[in-house]
Amino acid sequence: MKMLRYVVPLVIFVIIGVFFAKGLQRNPNYVPSPLVGRPAPTFSLPNVENPDAVVSSADLAGRVALVNVWGTWCIECRHEHGYLLELARAGVPIVGLNVRDDRAAAVEWLARLGDPYVGSGFDPEGKAAVDWGVTGAPETFLVGADGVILFKHISPLTPAVWQRDFVPLLVEHCREAKCPFLAAAGGG
Amino acid sequence: MIPEFGQLALALALCLALVQATLPLIGAANGRVDWMALARPAAAGQFVFVAVAFAALEYALLNDDFSVEFVAAHSNSALPIFYKATAAWGGHEGSMLLWIAVLAIWTMAVAAGSRSVPQEFASRVLGVLGIVSAGMIAFAFFTSNPFTRLTPPVTDGNDLNPLLQDPGMIFHPPTLYLGYVGAAVPFAFAVAALLSGKLDRDWAKWTRPWTIVAWIFLTCGITLGSWWAYYELGWGGWWFWDPVENSSFMPWLMTTALLHSLAVTERRGIFKSWTVLLAIAAFSLSLLGTFLTRSPVMISVHAFAADPARGLFILGLLGLFTGGSLLLYAPRASNFEAEGGFQLVSREAFLLANNILLVSATGAVLFGTLYPLFIDALGLGKISVGPPYFNVMFLLPVLPLAALVGVGMHSAWRMTPGQLLLRRLRWPAVGALVVGVAAPFAIFGAASALTLLAVTIAVWVCASSLLDPVRRLVLRTGAPLTRAQMGMCLAHFGVGVFMLGATVASAYNLEFDVSAKPGDRVEAGGYEFVFRSVRSVQGPNFTADEGEFELLANGKSLGILKPQIRLYQVQRSPMTEAAIDTNVLRDVFLALGEPLGADAWSLRIQVKPLIGFLWLGSGLMALGGLVAITDRRYRVATREARSTEHVEQPAAGAA
């Protein structure tokens, strides 16, 4: 019986360990953005690649789409770039929000690494980014066909995050007509 | 090529760590001297290869090799060369390499300093350190390789986080790591004792100096971090109960408890299984800190890029090290027999109280730190635990702890007559009460009950710590003091000084938020600030608005203050550089806030009485530790080890 008390530390440690293991499976990351569940802020910005064209809220209208915040100064954006291209190939519409960037560098980046965006708004002073509650880059918003923000992800978008956080929402919010890409992008 | 050499060196270090982790332990179990003898060369080889890997990373940083992902993410060609070098620990991968390098340094020190220890025991200690090292190197190598290449390379890097571009950042992480990685050494001694099933007073004597050295580094590291937060974060606070601060503070509390418990084990041969448990807990809490900062379970200003795979790996290591040692502890701890007893009023009893209170304080901090995680894991929502919880829950055990310091250090081993203690301590106690109650009213005009209590206890700790040194060094009476006793008095005096600083700086902090234009005179807290100008300044990798203020008190000029707001070009983040006028009794803290338009600026002015005592007190604690390890009995042990093969342990001096 005396030995029993020497087991107590082990028991305490195991309990804490179980909580850690559970904690790892959750997405602690981030207290949901206050914008989630609200209509997406409207914006209208010149296109990075073509200053005469406009990227605006109209590009989101009537379909489920991603809004991805990026900049050439953002190393982590480079990490997710390949996966964004993959999603774009599967047909996912991605609207870019190029924040606090240099236009020439941004154009060069898209030319060199490929362009996954239906269009990228050029926001050198981060004004639209403030409306969207952007805290850094990369960030990715999922916007529903009704223009409501369904989800916000901070840090690079990876296949694991896509499967875990985005696909269930897509399955829930897409009717066949509005997400033709669903099967190709892993939700079928 | 150089980064690939670094990677190769890391792989070789891993191989040697695996050798060190297995053969000496097997040899010790089977009495194979040749296998045990492998421990030291394996440790030395590992040290060399880790050093090569670290040098390779520094080479890449200093030469702006932006084809290395870590360099691209944490450095920039415009970064001053100092910060290029320290960028090595500005990100997760590099700081893991630093962790490993620091462990290698400790391992080398133990290998060199344990020649007076029986070979079987030394082999076990080095073997356990090898296990820790192998785990950490594997973690770095497989999940956090700092040498990963970036294809295609970028032309310039993302720059070091501006918060880290500060002289404090050069010393804070390495010192802190020396401290909390150093907790691995008493851990290794504890596990070695569990493995051998033998724990005697010699064990405590071998373990104690290592623990003190780790504790000194931990003390300095935390102090540097707090000082850095104070002048760099621009809010004038010095402790935020941030999860990462907590995770360096918990090992400190545990190591402090361990030091005191080791004193009892060394002197009296009791508290053995408790001491072992504390050694395991101290290192486990260090690892916990590593886990919390490097996995996505917590949100903190310190958090590194979060990655669940890394979190899982460290959790596995935590399970291996802590779980493994506790699994060993459960059946074996009962073997360690107490060699004596003690009375209710005795130094042992006071040290027991010290341990209980320190462990309670650690428990309170641990609970507060993990509570949000527990709540989240149970699906009950997202919450955060703030300073109000910590301040109360921490003070509850710590105030009585401090009050007992004065009594405990004057009590004798085994038993102390109560009257003797009373006679010795009544005047310091009365003096502390008078000063503690009168001084706050006399100087500041008002005081809360808590302030009076805390100041009284702080003065009491200072006074009772000085009693013996004053008697011996000034009045020349009483028994001579050993270095260990001097160190103890000094460290406890430091505790009192720290408490005084913490109490007064928190209770009587004056804070003013004002707006002013160049040409204005602002009066605040008994000082006058003449706002002369704001101009643009160009730094190497930032531009700044720099204000120029003349500080006056009673019409006399005290100097010029130049607070800045810096905008770092690459990361585009603004940073406040506060200007501080310091003297022994107070700091005047001035930070430039937002431009308010029409030339006006918001200013944050704070007058902080006695805040310097925080750093002074912590410094005295560390100095006390330093004096204590120069004590004769440790020097004698080393000298004899050098001159003879077999060491007869000299009689232990006074603790």
Task: Name its key features.
heterodimer; A: 188 residues; Glutaredoxin; 7 strands; 18% strand; B: 655 residues; alpha+beta; six-stranded antiparallel β-sheet; four-stranded antiparallel β-sheet; 20 helices; globular; disordered C terminus
What coarse outline of chain A follows from CA principal-axis ratios? elongated
Approximate shape of chain B: globular
- Supply the CATH superfamily name of chain A: Glutaredoxin
Instruction: Determine the strand fraction of chain A and express it as a percent band.
Output: 15-25%
Number of helices of chain B: 20
Summarize the structure.
The complex is a heterodimer of chains A (188) and B (655). With 188 residues, chain A is α/β, with parallel strands linked by helices.
List the helices and strands and how they pair.
The complex is a heterodimer of chains A (188) and B (655).
Chain A (H helix, E strand, L loop, with lengths): L7 H18 L18 E3 L7 E3 L8 E6 L4 H15 L4 E6 L3 H11 L5 E5 L3 H5 L7 E5 L5 E6 L4 H15 L9 H5 L1
Parallel strand pairs in A: 3-4, 4-5
Antiparallel strand pairs in A: 1-2, 3-6, 6-7
Chain B lengths: L1 H29 L2 H4 L2 H24 L6 H6 L6 H6 L5 H22 L5 H25 L23 H16 L1 H13 L4 H32 L10 H26 L3 H23 L13 H25 L14 H31 L9 H22 L9 H27 L4 H26 L8 H25 L2 E7 L4 E4 L2 E12 L3 E12 L2 E6 L2 E5 L5 E4 L1 E4 L3 E12 L2 E10 L2 H18 L2 H12 L12
Antiparallel strand pairs in B: 1-10, 2-3, 3-4, 4-5, 4-6, 6-7, 8-9, 9-10
Helix pairs in contact in B: 1-3, 1-7, 3-6, 6-7, 6-8, 7-9, 7-13, 8-10, 9-10, 9-12, 10-11, 10-19, 11-12, 11-14, 12-13, 14-15, 15-17, 16-17, 17-18, 18-19
Please explain how this structure is put together.
The complex is a heterodimer of chains A (188) and B (655). Chain A is α/β, with parallel strands linked by helices and 188 residues long. In chain A, 37% of the residues lie in helices and 18% in strands. Chain A has 6 helices and 7 strands. Chain A has helices spanning 8-25, 75-89, 103-113, 127-131, 159-173, 183-187, and strands at 44-46, 54-56, 65-70, 94-99, 119-123, 139-143, 149-154. Chain A has a 5-stranded mixed sheet. In chain A, α3 (103-113) links the parallel β4 (94-99) and β5 (119-123). The termini of chain A are far apart. Chain B has 3 domains: 1-163, no CATH class; 166-413, no CATH class; 510-609. Chain B contains 20 helices and 10 strands. Chains A and B meet through α1 and α2 of A and α4, α12, α13 and α14 of B.
